[in-house]
Structure formats: structure tokens, C-alpha cells
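JOB MANIFEST
job_type = single_chain_structure
chain_count = 1
residues = 258
[input]
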Amino acid sequence: YETPAETGIILDQQYWHSYYMLATIRAWQWRWNEAKELFAKAIKLDPVSSMNSIWYPAFLVANRNIDEALRIARACTRQYPEDSLAILSLALFLHVAERFEDSNAAINKYHATSDLATFAPYPIWPMRLLMLLNDVELGRYDKAERFLNLPKREHAFCDFQGPLQIAGIRTLVIAKTQGLEEAKKCLTDIEATKDPMLSEQLAIAYMALGDHQKAIEVLSNTLDNHNPLLLWLHVWPIFKPLREYKEFQELVKRIGIA
């Protein structure tokens, strides 16, 4: 996407979206100052479209400006109350702000007023996943386990039992509800895949078993892959137990955020 975005700017310096896409790419690359300048240009050209797209407020969250991201998200949901992506953004930012009940409430309000049958699978399954994360953070492990054990058809378009999606979260829940020995079996299954795309889930699994140093090591080894999810490494609530470690703080510095 980098070359098309740069080409778009050359061809039309008044088109906001090219600046916006390049700004998003620069954020993924941890080139924060460039991203900030490009987002500013996009916003100047088209403030409404720029504000209503998720990556600018996500950039604000990465730079610990969660309050401003929430302000933008709330304004967007007021303007587009039936926009599922707008609701997902608000719920996601509330989760990062550790307002887990409010995050669930935003999703439940949307579900209560919308006909889910009219929407494509995305973003319904991320909403359900976010509610699962909220329940985990609220210590509702029994509820989380019941959800994980539902038949696939009850998961709203998404097989949450698939290891590529929530293997680490499943390990954490099982550690709380069934004990560490059962959780170790989940960890063994994740390790056996040797899938680099499971890095954050593997780290969560190690955390669930109390091995924080190993979790940090996994995250360190995968950080240079520039997974967009790791842009929020320092603000994701699920990684909060790691924040006190010097090694974790060094990882955050590698991302370029003090």
C-alpha cells in the first residue's frame, strides 16, 4: 500500500485519502513524526472523513491520547449511530481506557437496536471478541468459559475455538477456571503450531501460566514484524501485568514511544 499512497499524493496533492493511508503505514512502521504530519495534512483537506476513519484515533491511542480518541469516536457514533465500525471503534477505545463495562454497554446497545442479519460478518465477530476480552478483564472467567464452549453457530459468524484467533485468551480463561495443568495443555498446542502469527497469543498464554519473562521474550522476538496490534502494546489492558518489567519498557521504547 505504500507505493500507491505515495503515487496518489504525487498525482493529486489535494486528495486526503492518499495522505491518510501513507500516515497509517508510517504509524505501522513506527515513524511517528511522519505519521503525525501526514495525518495533519489529511485532516486539513477533509476533516470529516479523516476523523471518521479508525486509524487516526488509533494513532492517538498509540500516543496515549485516549481521551481525544474517545471524543472523536463518540462524535462519529452520534453522527452515524447505525455504523457498526463506528460502534466497534468506540467500544475498542473504551476497552483500552479500561472502561470495560462501558465498552460492553456500547456493543449491547448496538446489538439491541440493529438487525444483525443485515450486516456482514465483519465487524460483528470483533465485537464479540471484544466483549470476551472485557469479561476477562472484569474477572468474569466462568462467563468467558461458557462463551468459549458455545457451539460454533452461536459465535456470531466466528469460530472462537480456532487457535489462530484466541488461543492465548483461551489459555488464560482455562487457567482461571480449570487450573494450570489444563492451561499448560493449551500452551503446548500453541507452541506446536510454530506459527509466528500467534506471537501475541503465545505471549498471553505464557502470562496466564505466570511466566512473564517468557511472554516478554516472545513479544520481543516478534516486534520487528510490525504487527499493527502491537502498536498498542503499551496500552492493551491484557498486557498490563508486564508493564512493571524493565524489559517490557524497553520494548515500548523500540516502538518509539517513551
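[summary]
The chain has 15 helices and no strands.
The two ends are 28 Å apart (CA to CA).
exit_status = 0
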